[in-house]
Design goal:
Blueprint lengths: L5 H13 L69 H12 L1 H7 L5 H11 L21 E4 L2 E4 L8 H8 L3 H21 L7 H13 L9 E4 L15 E3 L2 H4 L3 H9 L1 H18 L2
Antiparallel strand pairs: 1-2, 2-3, 3-4
Helix pairs in contact: 1-4, 1-9, 2-3, 4-6, 5-10, 6-10, 7-10, 9-10
């Protein structure tokens, strides 16, 4: 069990809190006109067959299209978005405006933040979400476990490690986050398509992932753990990484859902409350 697994959840929360903006709208790709019907051909004098016209594939419509918002008439023109490959400075400034410089520097990985955020969001419903892709810094300290009644359980004090991240999330107004999200959305959309979804819509995936996290079971009381058997000639140098949930149903959950469970039931409720509020802002 990775000592920083809550970073996975913090990543998606930071992404959602950070990803938002209402003035620049990702335009839908206009559908191509259908080829016109061929003229009637005389039965006794057939024309040579023309090459078949292959229609371009129609892009699937977004399930959760973001609503465009008009720029206030009195405001100055917005700075154009940079290319995705050159977006780090622009995104850092946008995040700093939303979260403050200190929080941004302490909490976030700003190198290729957009690409990290998109990859992490996409990975949360999977069994594993690679820490090297997280857009947030790992949680300090080690995961805590203790013996209780002959079983190994998550240490109740373990949830304190995650309080700074939970409090960080709760300082962000979901409505402001949704506004910045729309502002930066073309960058996230491009990163999502470059990830391997050429006809996908990142906002659809984001809402899908939020719904997945909202279905995480809430477990009251101690959660029993077991140690993973280490196979190989060498002992593990980091034994705290080897815990799993003893309940197969809990261990079979996704990386994002297991991270929420490890955060503790109170932190889990607080994070999911915030996510549910954000969802209402980006999925009408």
């Amino acid at each position: 069990m990775n000592r920083s697994t809550i970073g996975v959840v913090a990543a998606v929360v930071a992404v959602l809190a950070v990803v938002a903006g209402a003035w620049i709208w990702w335009p839908a790709t206009p559908s191509s006109d259908l080829p016109s019907a061929a003229p009637p051909v005389a039965a006794l004098t057939p024309e040579p067959a023309s090459p078949a016209v292959v229609a371009a594939p129609v892009e699937p419509a977004a399930r959760y299209p973001l609503e465009a918002a008009s720029e206030p008439a009195a405001s100055a023109p917005l700075e154009p978005l940079p290319a995705l490959a050159d977006a780090d400075d622009f995104v850092t400034r946008a995040l700093t405006d939303l979260l403050g410089r200190r929080a941004v520097l302490q909490m976030l990985q700003l190198d290729r933040f957009v690409q990290r955020a998109v990859a992490t969001v996409d990975n949360l419903p999977n069994k594993h979400a690679s820490p090297r892709l997280w857009p947030v810094n790992p949680t300090a300290g080690r995961f805590g476990a203790l013996q209780q009644g002959g079983s190994m359980v998550i240490d109740p004090d373990n949830s304190r490690r995650y309080l700074p991240l939970v409090q960080f999330v709760e300082t962000v107004d979901p409505a402001r986050a949704a506004t910045l999200y729309r502002r930066l959305y073309p960058l996230f959309q491009q990163a999502y398509r470059e990830l391997g979804y050429p006809q996908g819509h990142f906002n659809d995936r984001l809402v899908e992932v939020i719904d997945h996290l909202l279905r995480t079971p809430q477990v009251e009381g101690p959660i029993e753990l077991t140690l993973v058997e280490i196979r190989g000639p060498y002992a593990s140098a980091a034994p705290w990484l080897n815990h799993e949930f003893a309940d197969p149903a809990l261990q079979s959950l996704s990386a994002g859902q297991r991270a929420l469970l490890r955060a503790g039931v109170v932190n889990q409720r607080r994070l999911l409350t915030w996510l549910a509020t954000l969802r209402s802002q980006i999925a009408r």
